TrEMBL record:
Cofactor(s) recorded in Swiss-Prot or TrEMBL: Mg(2+); Mn(2+)
Cellular component terms per the entry's GO annotation: cytoplasm
Residue ranges annotated for the Nudix hydrolase domain, each copy included: 80-236
Record-linked InterPro entries: CoAse, NUDIX_hydrolase-like_dom_sf, NUDIX_hydrolase_dom
Protein name: Putative NAD(+) diphosphatase
The keyword Manganese appears for this protein: yes
Organism this protein belongs to: Rosa chinensis (China rose)
């Protein structure tokens, strides 16, 4: 009987939580698996039709509150391509939740030296957004997808370049097994920051920007670690504010969006 149970447990292991999970990460796994983003029908024909019907607006279904901001007069100009980023969380030595971040290579032609989450555009062969995010993370920083327990996806964000970016939350249960190996063509350095920082008002500032006649807020977080200073802003900051709000189950003490226009428009590295 015991041997049968052992064989059954072994066969079910891929469906079970990783045995190395700490109690905190185990609880977070269960919490986030219950999270359901608003229904979107991202990939079907009805979604494309709805986007075309609202092509004169920034649509809430792709990360923004609906407004009268024109994206383009021709519906064909608003067919956003898809991308995914990995919000890789792990438990720090002090028991806090931390997120893996990268500083883009200074040799890149666009957004060089900016802080971003690992990720990129969807490619043919990717099974889903989790597959895209973990594949990109392996290519950029050498993170083995087998080490990441993908638990949920968040609402997509629309980048400044009209790219639909899907945040994927994954948990790194064995942080010691991850040995960062940044691809020098894309990544200058890999570091981590406390997730809770993004729902605190410390080391944060916001600026009001304008795009196509509408105003929006963009957030900046200053962070220093190992005698290096980083500025986390734009799309990356916006995604992490949302992720931290969901993980810690409380809103930030500051306004995420401009209350007058409710446009959550952000810069993007993707």
């Amino acid at each position: 009987m015991i041997s049968i149970l052992r064989r059954l447990t072994t066969s079910l292991q891929p469906l079970m939580d990783p045995p190395t999970s700490s109690p905190r990460l185990l609880a977070l796994t269960h919490q986030l698996r219950l999270y359901k983003p608003p229904p979107l029908s991202w990939d079907d024909d009805s979604e494309e039709q709805r986007i075309e019907e609202t092509a004169g607006k920034v649509v809430s279904q792709v990360g923004f509150a609906e407004s009268k901001t024109p994206i383009g007069r021709d519906p064909e100009t608003f067919r956003p391509k898809r991308a995914a980023v990995l919000i890789c969380l792990f438990e720090g030595d002090g028991g806090d939740l931390r997120v893996v971040l990268t500083k883009r290579s200074s040799g890149l032609s666009t957004h060089s030296g900016e802080v971003s989450l690992p990720g990129g555009k969807t490619e043919e062969g990717d099974k889903d957004d989790g597959d895209t995010a973990t594949r990109e993370a392996k290519e950029e920083i050498g993170l083995d997808p087998k080490l990441v327990n993908v638990v949920t996806v968040l609402e997509p964000f629309l980048s400044k370049h009209l790219l639909r970016v899907v945040p994927v939350i994954g948990l790194l249960n064995d942080k010691e097994a991850f040995k960062p190996a940044p691809n020098p063509a894309e990544v200058e350095s890999v570091f981590d920051a406390p997730l809770e920082m993004f729902i605190k008002d410390e080391n944060r500032r916001a600026e009001e920007r304008e795009w196509m006649g509408n105003k929006y807020l963009i957030h900046f977080f200053d962070y220093e670690t190992n005698n290096k200073k980083y500025m986390i802003w734009g799309l990356t900051a916006g995604i992490l504010i949302r992720a931290a709000s969901i993980v810690y189950e409380r809103p930030p003490p500051f306004v995420e969006q401009n209350p007058s226009h409710k446009v959550h428009f952000t810069s993007s590295s993707y």
